[in-house]
TrEMBL record:
Record protein name field: ThuA domain-containing protein
Annotated keywords: Signal
Ranges of residues in domain ThuA-like: 36-245
Superkingdom, taxonomy of origin: Bacteria
Database matches in PANTHER family: GALACTOSE-BINDING DOMAIN-LIKE SUPERFAMILY PROTEIN, SECRETED GLYCOSYL HYDROLASE
Length: 250
């Protein structure tokens, strides 16, 4: 009897574990009550850090019990499919990435209470879609060389920035913006005196959020570099931004 029990224990320990594939709609981290869609299609410049961003977001999902599906297939933007997601992340998307039917489905998703997180080049996306400009909050204008900058965190009460230093020194590619929307709540700005090439003045936005047409939208200007996605403060910033767009308190 003891020999049988020992054999069963060994079989359990040696049995191969299974894990969902990291890419594709419906495939991601372990099953959980909540799910997000990470969309990284590019029709312009492609950031090599997209891969690192996916890995970081998958890890956040595994650690915080939400499923992360990743795709570059715009055909998943249907009303029926988007309903399963608490938030859609545009991870350094660029250019014209959705057709008119897909745009309509995404608009309906947001109006139904869905969340949106735009990371870095999400602002360099869909210039001919005025609704998207309102959602993301601003469009990319230009950028100087990558360099260190002082980020001034104005709101240290908001859960997405409360853990950040009031003056946060970090390295990234720093966007200048155009078509900045009046309804956004700016949480942090770039100190243009601390780097070269800023063109938005003393209130140069870097992180912002707003309630929009029934949903929640958040944008962060960081995330150009691979290193951003292993930087503890930036990764925590992404997690808290996700939780806010998902309407999660934990």
């Amino acid at each position: 009897m003891k020999r049988i029990s020992l054999l069963l224990c060994l079989l359990v320990l040696l049995a191969p574990s299974t894990q969902a594939a990291p890419d594709g709609p419906g495939k991601g981290t372990a099953p959980a009550a909540d799910a997000i869609l990470v969309f990284s299609k590019t029709a312009g410049f492609r950031h090599k850090s997209i891969g690192a961003g996916k890995v970081a977001l998958m890890k956040l999902g595994a650690e915080n019990r939400f499923r992360v599906d990743t795709t570059e297939d715009a055909s998943v933007f249907t009303a029926a499919n988007l309903k399963q997601y608490k938030t859609v992340v545009f991870l350094s998307t660029t250019g014209d990435i959705l057709n008119p039917e897909q745009q309509t489905a995404f608009e309906e998703y947001i109006r139904g209470g869905g969340g949106f997180l735009g990371i870095h080049a999400a602002a360099d996306t869909e210039y001919d879609w005025p609704w998207y400009n309102k959602l993301v909050g601003a469009y990319f204008l230009s950028h100087p060389k990558q360099q260190n900058v002082d980020i001034i965190v104005w709101n240290q009460v908001d859960p997405t920035t409360s853990f950040l230093p009031s003056r946060w020194r970090r390295f990234d590619e720093l966007y200048n913006y155009k078509s900045i929307q009046p309804g956004i709540t700016v949480l942090a700005t770039l100190d243009e005196n601390s780097y070269e090439g800023g063109k938005n003045g003393p209130m140069h936005p870097f992180m912002w959020k707003h309630e929009f047409e029934g949903g929640r939208a958040y944008y962060t200007g960081g995330g150009h570099t691979d290193e951003s996605y292993v930087e503890p403060l930036f990764v925590k910033h992404l997690l808290e931004a996700l939780k806010w767009t998902m309407k999660r308190t934990k």
